Amino acid sequence: MEILPYCIISIAAFIAALSTFFSGFGLGTILLPVFSLFFSPEIALATTAVVHFINGSFKVLLTVKNVNWPIFMRFGFFALIGSAVGSYLIYELVVFGNLYSISIAGISRQIDYTHFFLGVVMLLFAFLEFSNYFEKRNVAKSWIPVGGLLSGFFGGFSGHQGAIRSAFLSNSLTSKFEFVATSALLAVIIDITRISTYSQRINIEIPIELVFTGATFAILGSLLGNRMLKKTEMTSIKWIVGFFLCIIGTSMLLGLI
């Protein structure tokens, strides 16, 4: 048994979960490219979703008393629709085969639709991380249904649901406790939808040992986050996430992974 995947996933899950507890996003953003180092995009998506769901459920247990139910119902309904569409579409792309080929150092590489779109999405979110795009926007409550659809869609399509969700909720929820609790519960319902769709669309074998490892260290990160009384800025982590997404996204577009 190789120890390297366990070490990398443990560290990534712990740091990501700690960051996610405050920012509302980060776990799926970090874990998807990490799992993509060791598995195909389809397995990486499903594995990340399971770890994300386990950690999210634990966060809900810690924070459920602070959920803002009117916002949750309004945002969550549209998030479910978006998640179902996104998670269905990503595996439909598999049947289309390769999109293009590229030659690097005399070696021809084939890039299919799944790799291409995941690569593009990763680069898009890397740009949003670097530019602090969402932090600069004052999103009105009337746009919450749109936020639900977008967050759900990208959650199902690539696992990147949290950044958009945080952008739409941060200006609607004035309490940090409501923000954390509502975000956690919304993440769980999106995860349930996409895991259900993934399991029906494609027959894959989940690496149970790595899921257990990732979930365990993610929970430890959430426990530490819950003990910290004030919100902590994770600017350096966001830059690392953006850099990592650039590397993995570009590698997918070039057929290197």
Determine the number of helices (DSSP H or I, runs of at least 4 residues): 10
Helix content: over 70%
pLDDT averaged over residues: 79
Structural class, from secondary structure content? mainly alpha
Largest sheet: 2 strands, antiparallel
| Unreliable residue runs | none
Q: Which H/E pattern describes the elements?
A: HHHHEEHHHHHH
Distance N terminus to C terminus? Answer: 22 Å
Please count the beta strands (DSSP E, at least 2 residues each).
2
Strand order of the largest sheet: 1-2
Gyration radius, to the nearest Å?
A: 17 Å
Number of domains: 1
Gross morphology = globular
How much strand content do the residues show? 5-15%
Keywords:
mainly alpha, globular, 2 strands, two-stranded antiparallel sheet, 257 residues
